[in-house]
């Protein structure tokens, strides 16, 4: 029974920490809320038990209804705890804040305020299966917990082994890159804290119903460490690995400690030693095997896509995907790759500029990185953005893409002022960027980096999560076909199943550009994409940009290599000291004295 209840709780924590990267040190609070809620929903009024224990509210509901209410209460508290992430605290700061919440909550529960009977806790909590008799109810309870754990496994697998789980892992790997492809990181973190809170609360309610009592001593903050250790030891992100970790840590080490013989003159030594063993185990795994006993495994797509050199054995079929024809068989039937969306083509029909920057100021302390900059980018063109180091080019790109909020000015995209919109909202509107240093999701494969960028994914909606592959399977297959073509065009097909973090610098740059194209952009902001590239990769990228422009895609190219700017840019903007000095054709700009003074053009 302890294994089952701990497993339900640990799966919820794995969803938060192992899959999404939310280090929730207040997780035990969710569990305690479920236990207290179940107790208060089943004990009845405090006067009914002779008044020997006091609590602020009491009902006499059916145990099943009480379990449902307790689960809902945990989800509500999980949602409240997620509010700490609304200000985008650094992950370590957020973890400390949640730890403080856990300590404060325990302190409040211990206080003699008549809330939950203070430090003495609640007792006589009804067993939902108590009518079966002592022996029968115990085994019936095991069956109940087993059934609920099985249901929990189905739910958590539906969340983690689907495109939605892929998105959560992207958030875990790099929040900035996830925002850059249109993912609402705050909302996704809130979802996993709400769902994980429900798992924890259900676990607490079942535990309180079984032992018939609950007190603050049962949910100190270190209990979160126990569950977290099970995730680390078993394998972060791997639901079956977490099952093994649960059996090893909270059950074998901690529950098993109570069966060790007592040491004369040292009461509680065995229990204390279990924490010492647990601490040593965590250090060993973090140092020597951070992936856990059963590492997280990513889907394999090479054979599925019919690419040469398919790996044999040991692969996981991607959820919802169906067998695609081989490249040779599909060469004559695959549709042309639509790298440019209809909305991007529609921008060409309007006379207005696609992007207008008006008097934008970006200030860091007393330094103006962008000083009242104004410029225009036309649809269907490649606009170059050049200038010496420190000119403010990247700061302007950050302001346009939403990663820095301007102190003053307007950013008009397709006629709409987006200066106060978040980066993810701008990306979903089609204003997509790459970064100076490639920002990928290193623990996702190359093709997963592309698939996670597909906009408007059905699998990320509630109906998609609940409905499964029947809802999003066709969209996933279409995305796979597009991703395969992009990987082949950019010479990355052989790396389809390689983790993005293992690719070379040039391959990572190509992968970041292809991921941006998967976002269905209207305007693509490229921040020094050729920096550090070999001649081979530079040629591939240059040819691709020219072809994309021919298909109607609008681009802004920040670049120090003026040769490519001269060859492919239709219009060039020169910046220096945060200001826009001049705009025009590169041949005309070379002759301007102010440009020459700020930027020696050879």
List keywords for this structure.
602 residues; six-stranded mixed beta sheet; single chain; alpha/beta; 23 helices; 12 strands; Rossmann fold
Summarize the structure.
The chain has 602 residues and is an alpha/beta fold.
Overview of this structure, please?
By secondary structure, the protein is α/β, with parallel strands linked by helices. The protein has four domains: 2-220, no CATH class; 221-295, no CATH class; 342-439 and 523-598, P-loop containing nucleotide triphosphate hydrolases (Rossmann fold, 3-Layer(aba) Sandwich), CATH 3.40.50.300; 441-502, no CATH class. The chain has 23 helices and twelve strands. The chain has a six-stranded mixed β-sheet with strand order 8-9-10-5-11-12, with helices on both faces. A four-stranded antiparallel β-sheet has the order 4-3-6-7, covered by helices on one side. A two-stranded antiparallel sheet has the order 1-2. The longest helix is centred in the first third of the chain and has 27 residues, at 134-160. The model is unreliable at 309-317 and 319-337 (pLDDT under 50).
